[in-house]
Amino acid sequence: MAARSQYEELARQLSAIGAVKRGLARILPPECPGGSAAVLALLSQHGEMRISRLAELLAVDMSVTSRHVAHVAERGWIERSPDPADKRSRILRLTPAGQDVLDDLNRRTTEMFAHHLQEWSDDEVGRLNTLLARLRDSFACRGPGGCAPGKHSGECRSRPVDSDDDSYTRTPV
Length: 173
What we know:
Layout: H1 4-16, H2 18-27, H3 34-46, E1 49-50, H4 51-58, H5 62-74, E2 78-83, E3 86-94, H6 96-116, H7 122-138
Antiparallel strand pairs: 1-3, 2-3
Helix pairs in contact: 3-5, 3-6, 4-5
């Protein structure tokens, strides 16, 4: 286990990450705030899904997810169609226009990081990616039935979409 001073410094560094997040927010077009960008990215990464699954992946309340979905649907970036298995539910799909927006966002993000990290080596960027993923996984499982701290197995993410089992945590991807 690391020394207490290391955890204190980690807390300070993570607080300072706000500058990076603000930089990312500044490159987003005004019509595509962060929540909308996250919806597009998750639909691209995971494919079509119900809004309940999207809320789980976003790790936010259904009402927040509904607002994000309405925003992107109004712009034609996603389509909502009836779920053949349950006509009360909707299946969300990324549209070609939504993919175009996402491609632009990815380009902007990549250019921003390339600009600000131009003095970093590929190895350094790779190590940062690895360590950030490990940090996220260390926080992934909370509550009963979760993984032991530092021993995330990914099983907590295999919860059935419509399960009422609260022993799994909502984990952003």
